Hints:
By secondary structure, the chain is of the alpha/beta class. It is built from 9 helices and 8 strands. It has helices spanning 14-22, 76-90, 96-107, 114-128, 138-141, 150-160, 178-183, 211-217, 220-226, and strands at residues 2-6, 25-28, 42-47, 50-55, 134-137, 165-169, 187-193, 230-232. The strands form 2 sheets. Strands 5-2-1-6-7-8 form a 6-stranded mixed sheet. The protein has a two-stranded antiparallel ribbon with strand order 3-4. Helix 3 packs antiparallel against helix 4.
Amino acid sequence: MKAAIMQPYFFPHIGYFQLVNAVDHFIFYDDVNYIKRGWINRNRILLNGEDVLITVPLIKASQNKLIKEIDVFFDQKMKDKLIFTIEGAYSKAPYYSEVEGLIKEIIYADITNISEYSANSVISLSNYLEVDTSFEFSSGISPESKGLPRADRLISISKDLQADQYINSIGGQALYEKEYFQSKGIHLSFLDSYPEPYAQFNGEFVSDLSIIDVLVFNNKTVVMEFLNKYKLV
Length: 233
């Protein structure tokens, strides 16, 4: 069994969904500290040829709080404004109409906690892309492991899931050692993403944007193929 653990991101990029697709169990790391200027409550879309941020406003967000302790400040008017921005960016994209309803459903979701709100964007789109992965929150599945050193907690959560393989994003190579995980009975791999460029209107390709960008410029079948454009190292 394979597991991955990541903070819940808002409409994350394709590499995040590749990680979801690569494992049997995906754990939202919600009982760790919130990261300012990260991707928990924001992401990037393409607007008039430039990448711009879309953001979910939060109530008293602080790096001294756990992600699951932070609520959104996102009323109907703010959600309408976000939808308007996305429509302005992508209404003329070839596949916007295919995912418009789902994007709106995610944004208008009546969820007040940022951890659950962002996780819902991942779960909903994973279901749409027919990804067969189970989802859990670290605070629910392994609260007793909180306080362990970083690598040891990931190992503990993996074992709680009866997983013998843990897959991390490629950035984790600077943080975790395969030999240490192996000594604890867990095989560690890193996911190296190589999604193919695709046409974005008539401009130069801008990479690493929100999954929204991928969905509006490619049909569902192609996006599902993108989910396998990675290698494990």
